[in-house]
């Protein structure tokens, strides 16, 4: 079984700042690091580190070969990552002392992915596989159509969130990831409730409050695990990647969510994105005490 992830690949420039910048403010950062990022790359790395098999579908520029090398190093199959004559995507991330962040993104090659590139990957999939998507690339509708044709299950992490776009893709997903604000905006856009959507499973993340699993008319709450927060960047992507890899390895959704909550709890205690996502052994060996209610 395999997760085919149509997702972004970015160079993440992370700046430590005393507070998040205000409009018109010039602010001195205390440090900067460059790392592998993009919601897609983060999720692919999380899948691989959670012992899942993952093919990344995406694009970089000539300046981004280091990113492909890094993905491969972390266990991601990169044969469907294309090199194009455009810049690699990048993100400027500001992180304050409480771990909150603000992010500015240049899409670059992430929005130049062709239908042919997507088809070359998805034709290798089948009913035993997942297609995972976010909103940082183009080609989502085409990828969904192709995945349905070969019987793949579709998981959609609807971020960065645009209600109109999410309303087009979400109803065709088998598994949908949203945060609380996105969930409310999607319901408002579609004039419906989560329980009325034709989606088998919806997971609504709530940051430090845990998450909720909506399955039909039932809602199961999962509290978070305690953490000393350093940086929240990439925690949601880590959670999503761990859930998908765990499901792909045959775990139940409650089991997958619990493991993903543990991984996310470790992740927020680290500075960085894809490069610091914990592996399965770290998550299994970690001691968390009681989860937070």
Provide a concise account of the structure shown.
By secondary structure, the chain is of the alpha/beta class. 31% of the residues lie in helices and 25% in strands.
| Main β-sheet, spatial strand arrangement | 5-4-1-8-9-10-11-12-13
What's the number of domains?
Answer: 1
Going by CATH, the homologous superfamily would be: Ribokinase
Computed structural class: alpha/beta
List low-confidence stretches: none
Number of helices, where a helix is a run of at least 4 consecutive DSSP H or I residues = 9
Say what the CATH topology is.
UDP-N-acetylmuramoyl-L-alanine:D-glutamate ligase
Which value, in Å, is the CA radius of gyration? Answer: 18 Å
Overall average pLDDT: 94
CATH class: Alpha Beta
SSE pattern, N- to C-terminal: EEEHEHEEEHEHEHEHEEEHHH
The major beta sheet can be summarized as: 9 strands, mixed
- Give the helix level as a range of percent: 25-40%
Strand content: 15-25%
Q: Based on CA inertia axes, which overall geometry fits? A: globular
- CATH architecture annotation name: 3-Layer(aba) Sandwich
How many runs of DSSP E, i.e. beta strands?
13
Subunit structure: Homodimer.
Function: Catalyzes the phosphorylation of ribose at O-5 in a reaction requiring ATP and magnesium. The resulting D-ribose-5-phosphate can then be used either for sythesis of nucleotides, histidine, and tryptophan, or as a component of the pentose phosphate pathway.
Keywords: ATP-binding, Carbohydrate metabolism, Cytoplasm, Kinase, Magnesium, Metal-binding, Nucleotide-binding, Potassium, Transferase
Binding site for K(+): 231, 233, 267, 270, 272
């Amino acid at each position: 079984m395999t997760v085919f992830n149509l997702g972004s690949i970015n160079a993440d420039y992370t700046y430590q700042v005393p507070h998040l910048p205000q409009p018109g403010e010039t602010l001195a950062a205390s440090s900067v690091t460059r790392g592998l990022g993009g919601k897609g790359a983060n999720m692919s790395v999380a899948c691989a580190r959670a012992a899942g098999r993952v093919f990344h579908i995406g694009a970089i520029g000539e300046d981004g070969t280091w990113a492909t090398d890094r993905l491969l190093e972390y266990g991601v199959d990169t044969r469907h990552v294309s090199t194009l004559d455009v810049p690699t995507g990048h993100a400027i991330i500001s992180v304050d002392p409480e771990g909150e962040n603000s992010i500015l993104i240049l899409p670059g090659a992430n929005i130049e992915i062709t239908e042919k590139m997507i088809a070359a990957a998805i034709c290798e999939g089948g009913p035993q596989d997942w297609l995972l998507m976010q909103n940082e690339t183009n080609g989502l509708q085409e990828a969904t159509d192709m995945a349905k044709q070969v019987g793949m299950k579709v998981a959609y992490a609807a971020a960065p969130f645009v209600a109109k776009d999410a309303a087009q893709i979400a109803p065709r997903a088998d598994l949908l990831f949203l945060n609380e604000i996105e969930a409310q905006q999607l319901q408002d856009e579609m004039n419906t409730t989560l329980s009325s959507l034709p989606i088998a499973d919806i997971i609504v993340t709530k940051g430090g409050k845990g998450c909720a699993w909506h399955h039909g008319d039932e809602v199961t709450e999962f509290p978070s695990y305690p953490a000393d927060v350093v940086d929240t960047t990439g925690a949601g992507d880590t959670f999503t990647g761990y859930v998908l890899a765990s499901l792909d390895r045959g775990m139940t959704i409650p089991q997958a969510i619990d493991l993903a909550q543990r991984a996310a709890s470790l992740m927020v205690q680290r500075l960085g994105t894809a490069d610091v996502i914990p592996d399965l052994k770290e998550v299994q060996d970690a001691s968390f005490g009681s989860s937070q209610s």
